[in-house]
Amino acid sequence: MGNLIGLCFSAVFGIVPLMWLPSIPRLPIMAALFIATLCIALIRHQWARYAAFGLLCLCWALFNARETLMPFEQWTRKAVVVEAVVERSDGKQNHELKIVSLEGKRVFPPVGIRSLGSYLSDDLCAGQRFRMKVHLRPVHGQLNEGGFDSQRYALAQHQLLSARILDAKRISSVCSLRSYWLTAVEKTTQQLPYQGVILALAFGERAGVSDEQKNLLRQSGTAHLMAISGMHISLAAMVGWLIARLVQFAFPAHRIHFRMPLLASVFAAAIYTWLAGGNPPAARALIGVTIWLFLRLQGRYWSSWEVWLCCIAGILIYDPLTVLSDSFLLSVLAVASLIFWYQWMPLPRFIATAKGIFRYPLALLHLQIGIMVLLLPLQIFIFHGLSLSALLANLVAVPLISFAVVPLLLAGLVLTNIPWIGEYLWWGVDRLLALLFTTLAWLPDGWFEVAKRFQILSLSGWIAVFIYRLSLWRSAPFSMIALMLTLAVSTSREEEKDDAWQVNMLDVGHGLAIAIVRQGKVFLYDTGNAWPGGDAARQVIIPWLRWHNLSLEQVVISHEHLDHRGGLNSLLYEWPALKIRSPLRWAGHHPCFQGERWEWQGLQFTVQWPPPQPVMTGNNGSCVVMVSDGHFRILLTGDVEVEAELAMLKRRWGLLHADIVQVPHHGSRTSSGAPLLRAVKGSAALASTSRYNAWHLPSSKVIKHYQSQGYVWYDTAQSGQLTIDINSDKWQINGFRAQILPRWYHQWFGVSRDNG
């Protein structure tokens, strides 16, 4: 079976480049690559065949990516008529659907869409089919360094489009069997305090999990236990295997065969995957269990690493876009860490030979230490932090969920319609969950955010295991000391030139947040928007500051509108001593009126507008600030409109010249008058805008107006985070989408410009 392992290596190396490609090649290039693959396959050498199979898998991955992007180009230009099947719904206005036909033509495989804010029916359930007239929009996410990559996530989950439903007619009212099952469990558990968590564990429906519960799981590092994933599918497979073995006790000896429990385990895993709605983590786990079954039936010994590699290859061949999934990468590394840990750091002899009940907690502690240390690099890369209480929390949560909650929950799923028995089983699950959450609540708040510069240091666990097992601390002590010093030095901040600084327009959607950075300190102009349950500071600004290990010192609030001050309270919670300037005359705010000057980190700040009297509010009361280092100048304008622009220009024409201007009012026609643009005489204009906003900003006329005046136009909707690197009289603008992290899944999908 050496050929199989070689082919699996080839498949993985062929598909993994999909993570880093800046763009998907055009069809002629893909055709040429496929022809080259066929030519290499004709070479009668084993390595040539491995290379050909790897290139074939690369072609397959590129084809999948191109087919995934096809709806963006063909379906989003106008309203279309589709037939769609309901996958999930909150019963109100938010739904997940699968398009099975479009304009009368079958769509295979079905394409996932989301619809927010559209009412369909009072008795809506999964499995019902609708004929709809919809306006489809491609996925689009805010892009910031250190932020959540929603575009990559959407592609990995195959949820590529959002839909605005213009008209809908139900053509089938039949609910799916899963929907009937879900309804039965909901009815039985409706009085239980932890019903939301039960439904998340049983069906993957996480809408009922409260924000408080989600935060507690995140803080304790146990969130992975509450989503149906590889561990839960494996437990279901184990239960299926055990049931089959118990049944075999009633068989005569000549009827007992090892294949029956193996097949039963895959069947049980498949049922649980179906109950979970076929969500990608559960489907990947089912594929892994199926591959494991196939290998077991080959009648030879397979090492753990061989099974691990075959499962990865099989999953990636089935769905190449899985390589973009963070949960898949975590699962892959978690299994690799377990294998590596037990091979290189087996149970100490005093634990392995211990007797009594203490052996099992110690063995679990040994396991949790290994997982925590070896998963640290990827955890910091994905979540930008770690839970300091995760070790203790998982020592309680893992055995409780694995050996009590999940088996009882599976029994409840089977027996839920049997009077009394089903109710008592679900009550038992609820009480076990209550015990778990009570225990987690006793633990201290353990979440610790980690800066980007500690990523290399997080590899210390892996390095320490190698050093210990290879006895390098004895044979090469000075080299090991040098290595550790190098890791420690890598965490220190890079020295910046005295005249170097940065201006970052963060991608906060509809709102404004500009971070001026120098020597590890930050001056923030506006704090983005706020909405029920969150704000731009909590979602974007604070994670960005933490990831770059930056200290926020001062904030300017340009005016009182929510999209400019929405994140202020969250910032004050993190930095209570924050110095705030604004024209609002609020308690604790320093003035920001025309004529005010101050210096920060060697930069000069001059307020150009508004005057102290008369009192001005709204957009025209925006605090307009010129920032300069003596060579480079940027004008920050808030939402100032034409009337105030003209008033600001009186007797101050020569004071407003700048290299770059922040476009006032997100590119609205009510701002950016010709006199202001001529007075600034800048080279570039930066606008903070969101795609699909209700006001259709920025105005195409405003963009053309700037370009006709010699400005290069940039906006966050098109470019994501915009970063200006300034070094004396030299400066450069880079956008996240095209320069900072160019990836094919970060592209602007759909029509060239769509802001409404």
Briefly summarize what is shown.
This protein is of the alpha/beta class and 756 residues long. 46% of the residues lie in helices and 18% in strands.
Please provide a written account of the structure.
The chain folds into five domains: 2-69, no CATH class; 75-175, OB fold (Dihydrolipoamide Acetyltransferase, E2P), CATH 2.40.50; 182-300 and 375-453, no CATH class; 457-490, no CATH class; 500-746, Metallo-beta-lactamase, Chain A (4-Layer Sandwich), CATH 3.60.15. The chain is globular. The model has no long low-confidence stretch (mean pLDDT 89). A hairpin with an 8-residue loop joins strand 8 and strand 9. The two termini are 56 Å apart. Helix 11 (304-318) packs antiparallel against helix 12. It has 756 residues and is an alpha/beta fold. The protein is built from 28 helices and 24 strands. It has an eight-stranded mixed beta sheet with strand order 15-14-13-10-9-8-23-24.
The CATH topology of the largest domain comes to Metallo-beta-lactamase, Chain A
Measure the end-to-end span.
56 Å
Number of helices: 28
pLDDT averaged residue by residue: 89
Biggest sheet features: 8 strands, mixed
Tell me, what is the CATH class of the largest domain?
A: Alpha Beta
The share of residues in extended strands comes to: 15-25%
Protein name: ComEC family protein
Membrane topology: Multi-pass membrane protein
InterPro entries: ComA-like_MBL, ComEC_N, Competence_ComEC/Rec2, Competence_DNA_uptake, DUF4131, Metallo-B-lactamas, RibonucZ/Hydroxyglut_hydro
Keywords: Cell membrane, Membrane, Transmembrane, Transmembrane helix
